[in-house]
Amino acid sequence: MKTMLDMEATAMLGVVLWSDVKDNRAVVWCDDHGDLAFYKPGKTTADRAVFQPGDLIQFELREASQMRIVARPQMLARDSHPNLADELKQVGEAMGVVTHSRDAKRASPPQGRTRRDADVIRMDSYRRAEVA
Question: Where is this region: Disordered (predicted)?
Fold first, then answer.
């Protein structure tokens, strides 16, 4: 079984879409437009940082348990993309994969997917469809 240290890392840029300052966690949109990456600081000082939505960061991307993990993050620009999360929501609504209303019942998952799968929007398939 591989550990985080055994896994190959890829250099990546990303924009923080969501963060929880209290628990020091974040969700990052990666420059490869693949699945989102998750940040939770490790035990080393190099892994500890506090991010806000819109921050541009550079990091090592690692994969573990079918998740993309942010490791060794570095701040490049504070609040460089302040509206990115809202813009992505608007695009998702226009594509019919995201509902905006807080009062609406959860949308049905896209055809061929389970409700659990619907919680994660896999951006790569939508990006390929737009390019084709």
Answer: 96-132
